[in-house]
User: Fold this.
Amino acid sequence: MESVAPKVTVVVPTYNERDNLPKIVELLAALDVPNLHVLVVDDNSPDGTGEVADTLAQSGPIPVGVLHRTVKDGLGRAYVAGMTRALAEGADIVIQMDADLSHPTEAIPRMVETLATTDAAVVLGSRYVAGGAVASDWPWHRKALSAWANFYVNAILRLRVKDATAGFKAWHADTLRAIDVDGVQSNGYAFQVEMNYRTVQRGMTIAEVPIRFEERTDGVSKMSLAVQIESALVPWKLRFSGDAAQPSRVRG
Assistant:
């Protein structure tokens, strides 16, 4: 009897991404990843992204599900809602990917393969391991801020991860259950850090594969001052909310 490929669900939160969403689905459909599904989590976008998602669910090139949320309360909350739905629908692997085309879909097969062939609990698409890169059109101060954020997080939490704020990840479903993803409270970049911290605390392995991060070409960034402030405070909150993180096993 032929074995069934693991169900891989790509969770894509959206807010005003009607132009980018069809492009992402087409790029995902072109990948050589069997049993690949997409779950769009739309936060009631006023530009009609939710309706575009519904159309893709009816006639898209791969299976597309849509979770319509009525409140816009942050990227972290959207990811938690999407991941929770993906687990409930039987996903074996959950990939988190932003809707702005900054994350290279062509890295997904390697991320899935790394999960399947190593003891990694989660695989990060990393800008800061050998072979990775940030967008060439980033100004120097943004590159410096990104590098500083990773140094800052690792200095406080000792995650020993090159790209602690990475938002492109492939998770084993069992990992998300083990870290109680439904209980994650942070938003923005702090959400990424809290997810990594919970993984490290449980002694699980984080692997990193190189990606080239691209700047969005359509739409506008959702980064706000509140997200930046939270990102600065959350590592300290995590550090002093319980025992210090156990040293993680990180594979680059």
